[in-house]
Amino acid sequence: MKKIFLFAALLQLISAQENLLINVYNRPAKSLSGQWNYIVDPYENGFYNYRYEPYDNAKDPGKGAYFTNAKPKDKTELVEYDFDKSDTIAVPGDWNTQKEKLFYYEGTIWYKKSFDYRKKKNTNRVFVYFEAANYQADVYLNGTKLGKHIGGFTPFNYEVTKLLKEKDNFLVVKVDNKRKKEGVPTLNTDWWNYGGLTRDVKLVETSDDFIQDYVIQLDPNDRKKIKGTVTLNGSDIAQKKIRIIIPELGLDQMIVTDSSGTASVEMQSQKISYWTTQNPHVYNVIVQTQKDEVVDQIGFRTITTKEQNILLNNTEIFLRGISIHEESPVRHGRAHSLDDAKQLLTWAKELGCNYVRLAHYPHNEHMARLADKMGILVWEEIPVYWTISWDNEETYRNAEHQLTTMINRDKNRASVIIWSMANETPTSDLRNIFLGKLAAKTRALDPTRLISAALEQSSVPGNPNVKIISDPFANVVDILSFNQYIGWYDGLPNKCKDIRWNITQNKPVVISEFGADAKYGFHADTLTRFSEEYQEYLYKETLEMISAIPQLRGISPWILVDFRSPRRTLPNIQDGWNRKGLISDDGKKKKAFFVLQKFYNTKAAMNKK
Ligand code: GCU
User: Fold this and answer.
1) Apex 350 CA angle, 344 and 352, nearest 5
2) How open is the CA angle 214-14-128, to the nearest 5 degrees?
3) Spatial CA neighbour of 277 closest among 368, 357, 355
4) What is the mean pLDDT of the segment spanning 151-166?
5) Is 118 exposed, middle or buried (0-12, 13-18, 19+ CB in 10 A)?
6) Span 268-287, pLDDT tens digits
7) In a 10 Å sphere around its CB, with 0-12 CB exposed, 13-18 middle and 19+ buried, how is residue 472 labelled?
8) How far apart are CA 542 and CA 142, in angstroms?
9) How many angstroms is it from 190 CA to the middle of ligand 1?
């Protein structure tokens, strides 16, 4: 029964996306990165006419609609914008850190990129692929609307085969980063609302019938078996042969698609080198049809829990982690590049980590792909953060779409072991229903990984120093996670000694946040807030306190690097930065970094015994 369930789940995941391409990194693509023209449009004058009617709905939008990229036909004609005479901005990249006048800007900015494009083969198809755009993108090619995407951290693409010309194409994108009550995230967050085409944009060319999607994983019920599902996209995809090759394992199998263009594979091998954090072995997996071929690097492992333990390949593991925001170290602004990912994950490794929590939204794809290669386990989450509109059906659909896209993009990444539904969301019946639906969706889409969320913790009535996890969602998740700030938001670090954690659920505990602000280079005694000594003292006290929790199987302290937040305004200390980083925004390690590093190195040495 379980096997049928798994197979059905994989199918549902593949069909869940509107022809979202995966593994774009390994496909031939023309990057549209570089300088784009842009127009700042706070009144959305390029989108609505003066009666506030969207030009999208007009039969003839006229030259006032920015997406027409209009030019006056002669000196008499009135056109009150001109992309080509407007300033330029780099894509990928948030606009806040590229233009001082846009640092605090929240609203619409129009981007325009002109390009020529000649297809390699006339029968091929072409897609424009966006790795992310924060927060809402309306996309037009050569004056035709391709679609609208909501959600600032997940990829999307549109087929442009029939619209492309060999010369003078113009891609116009309206990006609006205004925060919305019904949004995901909602109005209030503790991070900077970086707007724009924050990740790469590229043209991906495929054969007319191509490999749309695949998932190739170790069968959780049989560690000698690799199973998978492949789906084709095109007009002639039924009863088609697909070849799955894993050269290093000597596996080479032919499967045939059903009437819907989907096929499943099961391959046995006695010599699989399982992916682990010490030996992050990834295999070249080739998926081939007569017309298309995609190669991916996939690690084979299982991740499960057994009572209070987390098991990687049936071996107990302690998650020595750290939380990370998608903030480019040293350069600042939204991280998006492989170099950004290398810097962040190298610092995590230096800290002694075998695990990272990518907070509070799906990070760029480089992070999970690099974590696969570096042997770092990953927690990924969607920005269902704080006070979401639990009663709004559109909000739920948005959250579920972001969740589905995140899972669909990274389902072949061995490093990703936990899908998180939420962070610090106030408990209520509506919230429990909302999160319960997300959890059910996650299990349906991917039953091979664990689910968690940063749950609410509280005190026993009448005894504030006895902490419990009373959050109803604790009954749903595989891993009990929660953020706790005793010693920073709740008393001073010495309060840790008075606290007892009375966790009754028989599940692994991973503390998803603790920490304190410290301004790098500010030295004082251990009770002076924002000093490195205070942060160091809090880490020492907290590590001692939580080590007494019998179910503790991991931590991801808050946070690897200082990050920008409009909530943090203390002059000469925060200046718009949340200073809980163990590393400063210009890459310097604070004293607490070495406290955690020592704790992890000791833990690692103990576990090797
Ligand atoms: C919260 C929240 C983080 C925030 C942190 C803080 O737990 O999850 O997003 O940045 O606390 O207050 O620094």
Assistant:
1) 110
2) 80
3) 355
4) 98
5) exposed
6) 999 999 999 999 999 999 99
7) middle
8) 57
9) 6
Banded pLDDT at 13 (limits 50, 70, 90) = very low
The pLDDT score that the predictor gives to residue 14 is: 43
Q: Identify which of 358, 483, 488, 514 to mutate to test ligand 1's pocket (most ligand atoms within 8 A of the CB).
A: 483
- Structural domains of the chain, with CATH: 32-206 (2.60.120.260), 208-291 (2.60.40.10), 309-608 (3.20.20.80)
**Taking residues 552-570, what's their average pLDDT?**
98
φ/ψ region of 354 (left if φ > 0, alpha if ψ in -120 to 50, else beta) reads alpha
Kindly give the distance from the C-alpha atom of residue 205 to the centroid of ligand 1, in angstroms, as a whole number: 41
- pLDDT tens digits for range 64-92: 999 999 999 999 999 999 999 999 999 99
The token pair at 595 is 């406290």
Determine which residue's CA is closest to atom 10 belonging to ligand 1.
Answer: 190
Question: DSSP assignment, residue 381?
Answer: E
SS3 sequence of 437-484 = HHHHHHHHHCCCCEEEEEECCEEECCEEEEEECCCHHHHCCCCEEEEC
Pocket test of ligand 1: the residue of 192, 513, 529, 565 to mutate, having most ligand atoms within 8 Å of its CB, is: 513
Give, for 436, the enclosing helix (H) or strand (E). Answer: helix 429-445
Least confident interval from 18-27, 367-376, 449-458: 18-27
Say what the alpha-carbon torsion angle 599, 488, 384, 438 is, to the nearest 10 degrees: 60
Looking at every residue in the chain, the average pLDDT score rounds to 96
pLDDT in tens, 189-245: 999 999 999 999 999 999 999 999 999 999 999 999 999 999 999 999 999 999 999
| Ligand 1, atom 3: closest residue by C-alpha | 190
pLDDT digits (tens, 9 = 90+) for 363-404: 999 999 999 999 999 999 999 999 999 999 999 999 999 999
Ligand 1 binding residues, C-beta < 6 A: 190, 360, 423-424, 483, 513, 558, 578, 580
DSSP per position, 227-255: EEEEEEESSS-TT-EEEEEEGGGTEEEEE
Strand partners, 252: 245
- Amino acid identity, position 348: A
Please give the average per-residue pLDDT across 163-181, as a whole number.
98
The structure tokens listed for 107 are 């609203």
pLDDT confidence band for 18 (50 / 70 / 90): low
287, exposed or middle or buried, with CB in 10 Å at 0-12, 13-18, 19+? Answer: buried
Here the tokens at position 578 are: 């949340």
Which atom of ligand 1 has the smallest separation from the CA of 454?
8
